[in-house]
Amino acid sequence: MAIFKKKAVDLQREIFLGGLRGDRPVIPLRFSDLRLEVKDRLSGQAFDYLDGGAGAEATNESNRAAFQRWQIVPQMLKGISRTDLSIQLFGHDLECPLFLCPIGVLELAHPEGDLAVSSACAQTNTPLMISSQASNPMEAIAGIMPNALKFFQLYWSKSEELVASFVSRAGDCGCRAIVVTLDTTLLGWRTRDLEHAYLPFLYAMGLSNYISDPVFNRLMIEHPPQPGPQPRPNLQLLRSLWKMASQYPGSTWQNFKSRSPLRAIQKFIEIYMNPGLQWEDLRLLRELTDLPVVLKGIQHPDDARRAVDMGMDGIMVSNHGGRQIDGAIGSLDALRLCREVVPDQMPLLFDSGIRSGADAFKALALGATAVGIGRPYAYALGLAGSNGVTTLIDQYRAELELTMALSGCASIDEINREMLYTAN
Ligand SMILES: Cc1cc2nc3c(=O)[nH]c(=O)nc-3n(C[C@H](O)[C@H](O)[C@H](O)COP(=O)(O)O)c2cc1C
User: Fold this and answer.
1) CA distance 143 to 169
2) Whose CA is closest to atom 12 on ligand 1?
3) With bands split at pLDDT 50, 70 and 90, how would you rate the model's confidence at 424?
4) Paired residues of 89 in beta bridges
5) Ligand 1: does its nearest atom lie under 6 Å from the Cβ of 351?
6) Which of 225, 231, 302, 367 has the CA that lies 20 to 30 A from 394?
7) In a mutational test of the pocket of ligand 1, which residue from 103, 317, 389 has the highest number of ligand atoms less than 8 Å from its CB?
């Protein structure tokens, strides 16, 4: 039985005793406060890229509303003096069913980006899904957390060779599953980014996995990007080109003169998404790797069934945190629908809307095998770097543990649908 090194009661004691010395937790405990503090810290463009959703952001509201609709019904006097949060996922023993979702362009939140996050994962032994759009190459991220579980999140490019290269690099650097994101074959209508006329990729942010890739670099030479429109230079354009050059590896001046970042960005934009992707294409992954394959972005039970029929190893119910479609079903509701059609033994991962350890309890009760934290850890990173992420993970774990104990669950498999009530 795996018991946390830092149990909930120890964390509570540490915080309260710290108060005697005038210490306070390094990040606010409530998501609403965390969000407001990071909003003050970051530029408007950066905050809105992290925080924004598609359209009028109704899906973000549905994600939260679904959590509010389901309420925990605790049971008393079950003698829970110890709780075991451990689970098994794809044959790996985990101390806790929480993991960190793939979030691209984390350098917008903090200059240390993914490296700070992976260091927090190493410290707390928390699984991480490394994003295709990470701010550091996957090898550098994985290298910091050699013993913690990591998966690679794949955006399926128009170039199958590039897909193969990413998958092979992921396996080589110790990733234990490939998580293919299906919901982002195009960028959603992200109102706030459109209002700012701001896309971080155009400043060479979040491209590390591409510009460090031998296939991508070869494609740039063999199939140079189609020259785009040539806007008339003005001061703002030169500033943007300079910023782009400063994000790219090597000397900023050389990059500025050679325009190679511009070519890399153009090539990236040309191939990083594949709107033509179809179910049959996924078979290629089986030829490329023996690693488990997880489909991220499933919301419809028919798609969940299809994933099972195709022999996928896991499903991740997610609506990308409301960033893709406005007015979509709350992800927690989709989880319940998908669980009904997926065999019990099939891992069902979940994200979109988790804002506390108690939320994770609800997702587990509706059938999630493991639960992904998204924006909250990016905000914790923005406020307090790696320490902020470690603190957030400890807080979520502690609240999940206490919610279990106080509801009468000694282990994760005792959390079930019967623990929840909904009026609808
Ligand atoms: C700023 C940002 C960047 C993201 N980048 C990726 C990504 O690169 N790949 C991916 O599969 N999902 C990405 N996601 C979606 C997350 O993995 C996750 O599904 C989502 O954040 C969950 O919603 P929540 O943050 O509201 O809980 C991103 C989300 C945000 C907020």
Assistant:
1) 13
2) 102
3) confident
4) 92
5) yes
6) 367
7) 103
Residue tagged 């005697």 (tokens) = 20
- Specify whether the CB–CB gap between 68 and 380 falls below 8 A: no
Ligand 1 atom nearest 108 alpha carbon: 1
Of 402, 398, 326, 412, the C-alpha closest to 15 is: 398
CA separation for the pair 288, 366 (Å, rounded): 33
Q: Which two tokens stand for residue 322?
A: 């409301």
Backbone angles phi, psi at 103, to 5 degrees: -130, 120
Ligand 1 centroid–CA 322 distance in Å is: 9
Q: What is the pLDDT of residues 139-193, one digit of tens each?
A: 999 999 999 999 999 999 999 999 999 999 999 999 999 999 999 999 999 999 9
Helix (H, G, I), strand (E, B) or coil at 294: strand
CA dist list (Å): 186 to 163, 215, 269, 275, 302:
17, 22, 11, 6, 21
Domain layout of the chain by residue ranges: 7-17+24-53+100-186+273-319+337-353+376-402, 213-271
What's phi and psi for 275, nearest 5 deg?
A: -65, -15
Q: Which residues pair with 372 in a beta bridge?
A: 99
Structure tokens at 345: 């033994």
0.70 cut: is pTM over it? yes
State which H helix or E strand residue 391 sits in. helix 375-407
Nearest CA residue ID for atom 19, ligand 1: 320
pLDDT value at residue 233: 76
